[in-house]
Amino acid sequence: MDILVCVKRVPAPGARINVTDDGLAVDTAHLGFTTSPHEECALEEAVQIVEREGGTVTVMTLGPPEAEEQLRYAASVGAHHLVLIPTDGSAWDPQRTATALGEAIAAAEAERGAPYDLLLFGNESADAGGFQVGVRVAHRLGRPIVNAVKGIEIGETSVTARREIDGGFEIYRLPRPAALGIKEGINLPRYPTMKGRLASKKAALAVEEIDAPPGGQSLVRLHRPVETTSRTEVLGTDASAAVAVVDLLQEIGVLP
Amino acid sequence: MTLLVVLDHDRGKWVEANDEALTAARGLATAMETGLHAVLIGEGALDLAGQAGAGGAAVVHVATHPMLTDYGPDAHAETVVQLAAATGPDAVMAVGTSRGNEVMAQVAARTNLPFVANCASVDPTAEPWSITRVQWGGSLLEDVTLDAPTKLLTYGLHATAAVRASAPGAGTVEMFTPELDDRVGHTIVIDRDVQTAGVTLSTAPVVVSGGRGVGSAEGFAVLEELAELLGGRVGCSRAVTNLGWRNHADQVGQTGTRIAPEIYIATGISGAIQHWVGAMASKRILAINIDPEANMVVKADYAVIGDLHEVVPAISAEIRRRRG
Question: What is the ipTM of this complex?
Answer without folding.
Answer: 0.95
